[in-house]
Amino acid sequence: MDARNNYGVCGGPCQHQRRVGLVLWHPSAQNVLLSAGSDNNVIIWNVGTGEALSAFTLPDMVYSGCWNWNGSEVLFTARIDRFDGLTP
Question: pTM, whole model, 2 decimals?
Answer without folding.
Answer: 0.72
